[in-house]
Amino acid sequence: MEFVLKSGKGKEFLFPVNPEEVTISRQKGYETATVLTFGEFDFPQGDKIKEISFSSFFPKAFDDSYCKGSKDTHPKPQTAMNMLNQFLVSQTPLQFIITETAVNVPVFVASHQTTFRGGENGDVYFDLTLRTWREMKVARTDSATGINKNPRVDLKEKNKSYTVKQGDSLSKIAKLELGDSSKWSQIYKLNRQVIGNNPNAIRPGQKLVLP
Question: Which residues belong to any copy of the LysM domain (predicted)?
Answer without folding.
Answer: 160-210
